[in-house]
Design brief:
The protein is an alpha/beta fold and 488 residues long. The chain has two domains: 361 residues, 3-Layer(aba) Sandwich (Alkaline Phosphatase, subunit A), CATH 3.40.720.10; 54 residues. Helices cover 32% and strands 14% of the residues. It contains ten helices and 16 strands. Strands 6-5-7-1-8-11-4-12 form an eight-stranded mixed beta sheet, with helices on both faces. The chain is globular.
Length: 488
């Protein structure tokens, strides 16, 4: 063997030894922390670490949990939250290039020869005591107007679905970063032993299918994998292998988990790989979920009035209504971050018909979720976020009539709303120009929204960091400002 090959072998062996030492040291510190107590108060200067139980946040939180209603595809702000009645006078007129230059148009519509102004086909009403203006497409959500803060001045540089969704969820357009739920799990730990800290669910509208939803949107990225979200599937068994196969009872399963845990522990002792400890913890959680998940999804204890509040689809697994009720039940049981992904908002054509279907699917369950949380005294400490990845264009994509039009992707402005947990209700924040093309007041980036969400959970977004590849990463990257004007 050549001398340089021997040197490489020695170098690799030293790396393995150092990794083993550091891995064992980390486990020893974690064990010491467990002996001292996982709920002891942390210093404000402590660096966030891997937590197995509730810890003290940077400051007193307003929210104990988050329910994030993500509307995948890019809901049209012009037809839902950003009224522009003056556009009716400009129907069909070419959108001025000073407002919407050619270089800003996507390849899906830049081949058009005309870019006629398309006002919304729907009326906006002043709702609640606050007079917040919301679309007629949202009759149930409109009844909750005094609890909502609509942000009309969101802005994103991403104009394609996948990078835009990835940016909203992880703070980066590049895949591979931890999702928001994973960051919260890492920073705050879990409040429940029998369910995951972070649960994701998906549903599909009764219109067209919509853009795909990828598992990495609730992934842990470079954080320890114990912090990744657990997906509840929208058909079949909600969690794979949650039910024992024929001939296997709970005692047999418990014995299997015990022996499997011992084998994994032996492997950990020999390798020092911290991910083995994660695997052990995940098997234990899976065992507990075999009892907790069937009970969670059993709606037999729900009252008739509660079920009726969510609408006719509430018992249909995989529907948005079903997922909203499950979200409330998860929140009751201590799950910290619950995220619903609803597909079907990508309406390049036939928008009036398609968006009406989307709102029929989502409007009543969304309002029911707010009402239900209020009835149970949970609204004050539950932060509800409703958002998509970008907005839609003021010009029509394709042919324009008074009854039909389409809208292309638009990142320069879009609308989201928040409610509960210290959010000022009955208000709008920010403003766009007369065409709903550019933000003219209080422009916000996804990092600002995420910084505000973390703030309501008691986290200083600049201090929730994780070292990776030579730098400290955070959900808000190097940006983000808490939007204090919308906080009560």
């Amino acid at each position: 063997m050549k001398s340089n090959e021997i040197a490489n072998l020695e170098h690799n062996r030293s790396l393995i030894n150092r990794r083993f030492f550091l891995g064992r040291a980390g486990v020893g510190l974690a064990a010491l922390n467990g002996l001292i107590g996982t709920q002891c108060e942390a210093s404000a200067d402590d660096h966030p670490t891997l937590h197995s139980g509730p810890v003290t946040a940077h400051f007193l939180p307003k929210a104990k949990r988050i329910i994030y209603l993500f509307q995948s595809g890019g809901p049209s702000q012009l037809d839902l939250f950003d009224p522009k009645p003056g556009l009716m006078k400009r129907f069909g007129e070419e959108v001025p290039k000073s407002i919407y230059p050619d270089e800003r148009k996507t390849t899906m519509s830049n081949a058009q020869t005309k870019f006629g102004t398309a006002p919304s086909a729907f009326k906006f009403n002043k709702c609640g005591q606050s007079g917040l203006e919301l679309s007629e497409l949202l009759p149930n959500v409109s009844q909750m107007a005094d609890d909502m803060c609509v942000i009309r001045s969101m802005h994103t540089q991403a104009i394609n679905h996948d990078p835009a969704i990835t940016l909203m969820q992880s703070g980066s357009q590049i895949p591979g970063r931890p999702s928001m739920g994973a960051w919260l799990s890492y920073g705050l730990g879990s409040e429940t032993e029998n369910l995951p800290t972070f649960v994701a669910m998906s549903s599909r509208g009764s219109g067209k299918g919509g853009q795909p939803i990828y598992d990495r949107l609730w992934g842990s990225g470079f954080l320890p994998s114990i912090h990744q979200g657990v997906k509840f599937r929208n058909q079949g068994s909600p969690v794979l292998d949650i039910y024992d196969p024929a001939g296997v009872n709970s005692k047999v399963r418990r014995t299997m988990l015990d022996y499997l845990g011992k084998l994994n522990e032996l492997k950990f002792q020999s390798s020092g790989d911290a991910e083995i400890q994660t695997r052990i913890a995940q098997y234990e959680l899976a065992g507990k979920m075999q009892a907790s998940v069937p009970e969670l999804l059993d709606f037999s204890q729900e009252t008739k009035s509660s079920l009726a509040m969510y609408g006719k689809d509430v018992r249909r697994q995989g529907s948005y209504a079903f997922n909203c009720l499950v979200a409330r039940r998860l929140a009751e049981r201590g799950v910290r971050f619950i995220q619903l992904f609803h597909q079907g908002w990508d309406q390049h054509g036939n928008l009036p018909k398609q968006i009406r279907k989307q709102c029929i699917d989502t409007d009543q369950p969304t309002a029911a979720l707010i009402r239900d949380l209020k009835l149970r005294g949970m609204f004050e400490d539950t932060l509800i976020v409703w958002a998509g990845e970008f907005g839609r264009t003021v010009y029509s994509q394709g042919a324009l009539t008074h009854q039909n039009y389409g809208r292309d992707h638009h990142g320069n402005c879009f609308s989201v709303w928040l409610a509960g947990a210290g959010i000022r209700g009955g208000m709008s924040y920010g403003a766009t120009d007369d065409y709903s093309v550019n933000v003219v007041e209080n422009k916000l980036e996804p990092h600002d929204l995420n910084a505000t969400i973390l703030h309501q959970m008691g986290i200083d977004h600049t201090r929730l960091t994780y070292p990776f590849q030579g730098r400290d990463y955070r959900l808000t990257d190097v940006h983000g400002t808490v939007v204090r004007d919308i906080l009560s």
